[in-house]
Amino acid sequence: MSRHSLKLFAVVLLSIATATTAFAADDGNTQPKLTSGGVGGGISSPQDIVGTTNGAGNVKGVQCSSPSSANLWSAAISIYVNGGSAQTLALSNTQVLLDSASNYYTMYIPMNVRFTSSIRVSVAGSMSGSYVSCTVSWALD
């Protein structure tokens, strides 16, 4: 294994350990969910990854991927907590990695966004060219 590969492996292990530790103490019984969605390839409007829900819970994290780094960097995740205004997370501010199949992806972005009545998560970005796909980890209490 090359020195670069060892460093990348260490970063991935630390990310997993940190995320696991951060989410180990979750208050309440939750029903974990993974939901995916995306934009691009002619889709012309932001797309919901998690449609508006009813009830309390939390958004645990997100990860996105695309065959195009430019489309990935131009994408953004919007989170609407309890029917409020969008809280936007620009993917241009995250670390982007390239896998052996030449796909770009963000590292897992851990969160702990609590909501008491509803949550909605959407993705927006480049509407032409490569598709940007995102998966959100979330739970209802």
Task: List the main descriptive attributes of the protein structure presented here.
Jelly Rolls; 141 residues; six-stranded antiparallel sheet; alpha+beta; single chain; four-stranded antiparallel sheet; 10 strands; globular
Helices and strands in order, then pairings?
Blueprint: H1 3-24, E1 31-39, E2 47-50, E3 57-66, H2 69-74, E4 76-81, E5 86-90, E6 96-98, E7 104-106, E8 109-115, E9 119-124, E10 132-140
Antiparallel strand pairs: 1-10, 2-9, 3-7, 3-8, 3-10, 4-5, 4-9, 6-7
Give a written overview of the molecule.
With 141 residues, the protein is α+β, with helices and mostly antiparallel strands. It has one domain (28-140): Jelly Rolls (Sandwich). Helix content is 20%, strand content 44%. Strands 1, 3, 6, 7, 8 and 10 form a six-stranded antiparallel beta sheet that branches. It is globular.
